[in-house]
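User: hey, got a sec? need Prostaglandin reductase 1 folded
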Amino acid sequence: MVQAKSWTLVKHFDGFPKDGDFQLKVEELPEPNDGEVLLEAVFLSVDPYMRVVQSKNPEFPVGSHVVSNSGWRSHSVSDGTDLTPIMADWPSDVSLSLALGSIGMPGLTALYGIEEVLGLQQNETLLVNAAAGAVGNVVGQIAKIKGCKVVGSAGSDAKVAYLKELGFDEAFNYKTVPSLEEALKNAAPEGYDCFFENVGGYFSTVALPQMKTFGRIAVCGSISTYNDGTPQTGPYPHMTMIVKQLKMEGFTQNRWQHKNPESLKRMIGWLQEGKLKCREHITEGFENMPAAFMGLLRGDNIGKAVVAV
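Assistant: Yep! Here you go:
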């Protein structure tokens, strides 16, 4: 029998999450049945990354590393249908934690947003907000690989400095600029062909008028609205979208999951060539899951936020 720890939500968030909204529980897990495996978390995120420590399923030998949507749990039992093996030829000198970040769901979100939704072309100008986050920093780097001008917005001077290290052409701290509108205009006076949207709210309202005619917007997130007790209302973008003939599309990366094996190999290649740099914000200890989650919502992290169990 294995003692499994798990974090559960005991109270729905009222505004920003609080410690009291979470509860740590311990339970005894039964032995795996035939066809099942026992998983042990190694790194945790929104997408838990785990290894198989006991197996009665021949497809997942003991010691296999997999990605699973099993929640915030130290251990869990699975029949294997919800497990995604880490690519077999994962380089030995690349941390497996990156399977939760730049070489995982966030990285694929960046890639498919750029290629499948925006159709970004060489010499175009791209705007990305939350640019130092797990998705945003990869968006900017892929856009530079494709020969584009990249403008990034982030919430601290340290994050802006990181974006400059990554090769962003322009980057600014949206919290300290006198005018968001002027900052966007100064960064790209000619306007933006593409906008990779992670924030929503006021930023979106100010950014849309800066788009070029026939501009494209990929809507990946709306982090500025996630903790609102009362939904934000207006202004509304319809006239701007009509006059500029803009295309806006929401998406999640699993629409193109059939392309994942080839896409992950491309991204590993960029990493090994030095074209893609990966930075993580690692919190140690399963007991610190809620704190890491709340830190993510505050914007404490640069790069992917991961908990090392």
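Quick note: The chain has a mean pLDDT of 94. Let me know if you need anything else on Prostaglandin reductase 1.
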